[in-house]
Amino acid sequence: MGTECKRKRKVSLFDVVDERVTAKVKTSTIINPWNGRPYSQGFHEILEKRKTLPVWHQKHEFLKALKENQTLILVGDTGSGKTTQIPQFVLEAVELESCDRTKKYMVGCTQPRRMAAMSVSRRVAEEMDVAIGEEVGYSIRFEDVSSTKTVLKYLTDGMLLREAMTDPLLERYKVIILDEAHERTLATDVLFGLLKEVLKNRSDLKLVVMSATLEAEKFQGYFSGAPLMEVPGRLHPVDIFYTQEPERDYLEAAIRTVVQIHLSEPPGDILVFLTGEEEIEDACRKITKEFGNMGDRPVGPVKVIPLYSTLPPAMQQKIFEPAPPPVTEGGPPGRKIVISTNIAETSLTIDGIVYVIDPGFAKQKLYNPRVRVESLLVSPISKASANQRSGRAGRTQPGKCFRLYTETSYNDLEPQTRPEIERSNLTNTFLTLKKLGIDDLVHFDFMDPPAPETLMRALEELNYLGALDDEGNLTKLGEIMSEFPLDPQMAKMLVVSPEFNCSNEILSVSAMLSVPNCFVRPREAQKAADEAKARFGHIDGDHLTLLNVYHAYKQNNEDPSWYYDNFVNHRALKSADNVRQQLARIMARLNLKLVSTDFNSRDYYINIRKAMLAGYFMQVAHWERTKGHYLTVKDNQVVHLHPSNCLDHKPEWVFYNEFVLTTRKFIRTVTCIRSEWIVDIAPHYYDLENFPSCEDSEAIRVLKKLYRKREKDKVESKSRR
DNA sequence: GAGCACTGC
Questions:
Q1: Over chain A, what is the mean pLDDT?
Q2: Measured distance CA(A150)–CA(A153) in Å, rounded
Q3: Domain total for chain A?
Q4: Closest CA to A209 of A178, A180, A183, A184
Q5: pLDDT of amino acid A9
Q6: Are A238 and A396 in contact (CB under 8 A)?
Q7: A Gene Ontology CC term for this entry (predicted)?
Q8: What is the pLDDT at residue A693?
Q9: Which of A115, A225, A373, A706 has a Cα-to-Cα distance from A564 of 20 to 30 A?
Q10: Is any atom of strand B within 7 angstroms of residue A573's beta carbon?
Q11: Residues A242 and A208 in one domain
C-alpha cells in the first residue's frame, strides 16, 4: 500500500462509520461506498449493536498492527465478534484496487464448516447493507455465491486449498484470514504451511490468524513471532462439579444426573454430551421412560431431543424449540433436554442451555499407519474440549457443568485434542500438496509434523497408484488424479475407467461411495428394510448393489413413495447425484470419455469390477479356507465381512472400500474379484519377490502358483512358436 | 449378524 494508492481512495467506510460522524447523521442520505446506494433504515441500528461487541474496543489497535505487520495473530473467545467484525475492519483499511487499477483484490476469510461460511457471510452482508453474492459472498463446495464485485468472501478452508491449486500465489487476495485456527483441521494445517511460503513470495499479501485463546504461543512461534492481540470474550461464569469417584457406567451416570437436575435445580435447559447415534437414541428412550415412571411426584414436563449429524435437518431444528410449558398453571416448569454428540461442542450453538453434563468421552478418528487403518474410537476428550463443553452452559446466563469424572482425571487429560493431521491417513493430503508444487514433503513446514511412518505410507501408496514416480515426482496421472475431490484410490479408478469401458458406471459408484449410507434401517422395521435392500442386491458385491440403487433412483426419483417403500434415504441419493455431476464436469474438462459397456454384454459388470480393482488393489482380502476367516493381503489382518454385505457366499478374493474397527475388524462394502485380475492389474503391488513373508497366508501361495503357471504358459507358447 | 464423532473438496 503506497501513499500513491492511499490518495486515490475517495471514501473510506472507516470515516463514515466513525462514531462522531454517524451521531450527527439522522437520515440515511449517506451513500454506502461499497455499492453506491443510500444506506437502508436498518443499517445504523445494526451498526450501533455492532459497536457494543468487545472487538470494537480494539479496532484502532488492530488496524495499526495490521498496517505494521504482514502476519497477525488474534485470539478471542466466543462472543468477541471477531468472525463478523475483523474482516470488515480489514476491508476499511486496505486498498483493494491495484495502483494501475487493472486488478481488484479480495479479502478472504476461511471457516472449517460450510454452514458457518454461509451464515456468517449472510450476516456480514446485512451489516454492510449489501446483497449477498455481490460485495460480500461465500464459496463452498457446490455453491459459489460470489461475483466480480465481491470484495469480502467467506469460504471453507478446503475450498481455499482447492483455489490454491489453480492460483498458487493466491493472487486474488490481498488479505487472508484463517478463522477458527485452533480447531486445527487438516485443511487449515496445510494452509498454514502453504501461506508461510506464499507470504515470502508476496510482500503485499497479509495474513490474519484468528483462534480461541489456546496455544497462542505455539502459533506465535510458528509464525516467527507475529504480534498477538487478545480480545475478551463474553461468557457468563459456569460452576464446575466433579464426581468424587470415577463412574463405571457413564451412560447410566448421565441419565441419573439429568433426573437429579430436573428434580432439584432451577429452570434452564440441559445439554448432555454422548458419543454416537445409538448411544444417544438409547439415552433418549431411557430418560423419557424415567420421567414416565415418577408416579405422583410433581415433575415438570420434559422434551428430550437427540442431536447428531446424520439426523435430517428438520429433526436438528428441534433443538431450537422452547422448553415445554408447565402442565398446569403454576405447576413445576418444563425443561428441554438435548442429548448430543460433539456436534454441539463446535458446530451448533443452542441458546438457553444452563446445565451441561459431560461424561468426558468422544469418538475420535485415529490412524494406524502400520496396518493402514483409519478408525473411530471412543476416547477421553482433552482439557480444551472439556472447557469448550462447559462453556456451552454460560451463553445466556450463569450455568453449571457436571463432569462425570474426578478432578484428578481432569488434570490428567491431554491439554489439547491432537490435530487432525496427526490422526489421519495423509495420502490424499500429499497428493494435494504435490499438485500445489511442494517438492519436498518430508521437510514441509508443518506446525505439527505427522509421524514419519504415516508420511512414508502416504508416499508409498501414491507411488503404487502411479501418482508419484520412484523419485517422488508427480506424474501426469497424478496430476489428473489430483483434480478430483476424492481419495486417491477412487480418483485412480475413475481416471482409468474409460480404459475399462465403464466410466459412466464408475462415476455413479464413486458418487454413491462419497455420500452417507443411503440405506435406512429403522429399529421398528428392520426386517422390512433388509428385504427392501436385498431387492437391490447384486451377488457379486456391494459396489454393484450401490450402482443398482443409483439406477433405480434415476428411474423413480419423481416418485416420493419410492423412497419410503424401498427404505432409501432421499437426501443421500440427491447428494450423490450432485457429486456425480461435479465429477462428470471434471471428467469432461480433462477429456476423459464417458463410456459404457453394453448392459447385455457379459462383460458389463466384469469391466466395472476390474476398473474398481485398478484403484483399490491395495485393499484386497483373501478367504483363508483352513482358518475360516479373511486375511488382508500384505497387512495380514484377520477381518470379517461386515454383516451389511449383500454377497450370498464367501468369495475367495474380495476388495473392500472400508476397514471398520468396532467389536471386531470388519471390511465394509466389498466386491468379489478374481485372482487373475489381481495379477494382471497390479503386478507391481503383488510383486511376490518383495512380499513380506507370512508363512500362514494361503493368499500368497495361491498367487505364487498363479505366477508360476503364467511363467510356464509363457515359456510353452514361446517354444511352440 | 452390526452400527454412523465431526468436517471438507
A1: 88
A2: 7
A3: 4
A4: A178
A5: 39
A6: no
A7: spliceosomal complex
A8: 62
A9: A115
A10: no
A11: no
